[in-house]
Amino acid sequence: MRTIRSLLWIGSGRGLAESGVTEAPELDVTWVPDLDEAIRLPRVHFDGLLLEPTEATIGDLAESIGILRRVLPRTSLLVCGSTDLGIRPDQAVRAGADGALLFDSARSGPGIVSEINEALDAIRDAKRTGGPTRSAAEMPDRPSTQASGPTADHPNDEAAAPRFITASPAMQAVSSLVDLAASSPSTVLLTGETGVGKEVIANELHHRSGRKNDPFVAINCAAFPESLLESELFGHVRGAFTGATQNKTGLFEAAAGGTLLLDEIAEMGLALQAKLLRVLQEREIRPIGGTHSTPIRCRILAATNRVLSDEVASGHFREDLFYRLNVFPIRIPPLRERQVDILPLARHFLARHGPREGKPGCHLSLASGQLLESYGWPGNVRELENEILRALMLTPAGELITPKALSPKIVEILEPIAQGARPDETLREALDRVESWLIRRALTNNGGRKARTAKRLGLTREGLYKKIKRLGIE
Known about the structure:
16 strands; 42% helix; 12% strand; Rossmann fold; five-stranded parallel beta sheet; 3 domains; alpha/beta; Arc Repressor Mutant, subunit A
């Protein structure tokens, strides 16, 4: 796999899209719309810089390039592109001086990607052989404008950070359901895969309700053995069992007029489920060893990553309790069903954790963002947050988070993409090339055993044989 090289593009987003640069997996591209934004970038090293002249810079191209030379002195190559604005080739070459690569709109697309790669290689070769290099200098301290999301201005202000971050229709529908449920005292059942943010949604529901000034209490039912879980929920009186040396207030009572979230409710044993059912029916509890019942005022929310109807069918969950809990169900979709939320969430985690980790000013490169969006995220939002924390640990403060800082499971997609990234191929030919590469790798990893390879790839043995024959794999 080719080394990923970094490129800063200064100019219009339309020009970036039309250039074809973003389609090159070996180029890690960062885009800013104008010179001012480029000057405000944190101390980030780029292998190359491409200035697309605009109405604002065409008047004095040499001056604009001179400014960039001063604030980005470590940039190995200045790539200057002429557009339809009437820039003469000699003007662009003189402005670019010793590090200019001239191209025009007619040569956009795969051709310019190859030219940029060749130019970057030539610069690196010149450095290795003792060619002239520019002196290093520090960039001026400027506030970064790259931090995205609502917490960019107050990264340490938890109150300023929204609890609910979404851009997807699926989660906007969830938000609408949360609004409806917030005004009702009924029990809400939150369902969804591990890591989708069920507790976040529960917290949001609490804060949108009239109970927001009362406690929000959450307990993971899977974290306690049943005897201890009962004590945690209901409390106990002194002497109720060995070790009960004093009275203990349960969480039903501690939540007062607020909200109690029973997370992983499906892990609760059948005996305790029966007691919970009575609480939901009678709205009162009796501590372990107690003789008097106490009314409760809290609202009860439940959450699970299992399908409770299946648990009922298998005998692991009480049917009557299921119907008591399932008054207002809200399903939280997994992250793979709302890819548009990935980057807003990632930027939120950068703004939230960057200052805490001593890494303020870090932001995602274009290639890193594309890789995050292309990954399946089986661990959902929790896995994404952990990935951002890992990337921050591997990235110096104020610098660009490139694919090199991402986990191998995320960047491994670059390898098959690079195998099929040929500008002269059709989509079918490129897909065949990637498929052939994946099958060859799987055969190698499984010692050439076709039955085992087919199983690993999720194919039948006959299906694998057909693909091997069609793709000409030996």
